[in-house]
Design goal:
By secondary structure, the protein is an alpha/beta fold. The protein is about 35% helix and about 25% strand. A nine-stranded mixed β-sheet has the order 5-4-1-8-9-10-11-12-13, sandwiched between helices. The structure holds adenosine-5'-diphosphate.
């Protein structure tokens, strides 16, 4: 039973670029698609798809996008009891323009996500007993800090996925359960670009000294993951796959990690399974549709 606290966006994705828009000439794209996005939505739906019970705390507006996002979350199997529909506010949006080289530029509207206040998190934590909280950075920073404190005061462990990459003070996460930054987030938080084991250890030590987290767990893309427990570090190499699209890999990783830990598995087994979930996702096209099921993760690990 996992509570995810985070953002809900309606994504608009322009792809198949036909001509670039330079010097006042507008770019031409071949396709426009809509997707359910926001890091809160993505992680909650990853937990649900991997077979866990996921409830989301978040905010949408009373516009059409808010209605469609609520419906989409329910269709994905996410419990939306704690999603607020706020009058007079727009639902968060992200607009992505994909380039032929697979990089993209994006523009975002924070919208209702900016109204996610600690009281909404508190109400959810008081309504039900959760085994774990997972949160990210696409909400007011004070809500991120308070979510940790509210969960801690109730004895609920917190996994903090500190994306999108940004430098924030970490002292208020003193004693948090797990911090899971990817490479860019690690660099934003520590100034260290992780290129090898020594770098992973250095960055982990810096993060650990600020938080005294039970575990620092670096997500290192095609290289795998690095786990640090305050004393020693251990490298978990990625599973070799043919990489197709890494969108959603981090969400699959964090969701599988959380689920395994909720089931009482030890941290090393959980990281290995998380690596498998991330690898499967990276071997497929797309974000949410590429997140594996638990059966797929098990089959992959037993190969
Ligand atoms: P994010 O999506 O947050 O940037 P990463 O790209 O680091 O996260 O990916 C998360 C996890 O997914 C990695 O730690 C790894 O376990 C797995 N993964 C990502 N890319 C690959 C890949 N090319 N091959 C194998 N595993 C991968």
């Amino acid at each position: 039973n996992i509570l995810i606290v985070g953002s809900i966006n309606l994504d608009t994705v322009l792809s198949q670029q036909q001509s670039p828009g330079v010097n006042g000439i507008s770019a031409l794209y071949g396709r426009c698609d809509f997707a359910n996005g926001g890091k809160g939505t993505n992680q909650a739906s990853a937990v649900a798809k991997l077979g866990g019970r996921a409830a989301l705390v978040g905010c949408v507006g009373d516009d059409d996008a808010g209605g469609s996002q609520l419906e989409a979350l329910e269709a994905l199997g996410v419990d939306t009891t704690f999603v607020r529909r706020l009058p007079g506010v727009q639902t968060g949006r992200a607009f992505m323009m994909l380039r032929p080289d697979k990089t993209y530029s994006s523009a975002n509207i924070v919208g209702a996500n900016g109204f996610l206040v600690p009281q909404y998190v508190e109400a959810a934590l008081d309504a039900r007993r959760f085994d774990l909280v997972i949160m990210q950075l696409e909400m007011p920073l004070e809500t991120v800090y308070r979510t940790y404190e509210l969960a801690r005061d109730r004895g609920v462990p917190v996994i903090f996925d500190p994306g999108p990459a940004r430098s924030i003070p970490l002292e208020r996460f003193e004693g948090i359960f797990i911090l899971t930054p990817n490479e860019d987030e690690t660099e934003a938080l520590t100034g260290v670009r992780v290129r090898n084991r020594a770098g992973a250890l250095r960055a982990s030590r810096l993060l650990w000294c600020e938080t005294h987290a039970r575990y620092i767990l670096l997500k290192l893309g095609a290289r795998g993951a690095y786990l640090f427990d305050g004393g020693r570090g251990e490298f978990f190499p990625a599973f070799p796959i043919e990489a197709v699209d890494s969108t959603g890999a981090g969400d699959s990783f964090t969701a599988e990690l959380g689920l395994r830990l909720c089931l009482g598995e030890d941290i090393r087994a959980a990281v290995r399974a998380a690596n498998a979930a991330g690898a499967i996702c990276a071997s497929r096209m797309g974000g949410q549709p590429a997140v594996p099921t638990q059966e797929e993760v098990r089959a992959f690990l037993e190969r």
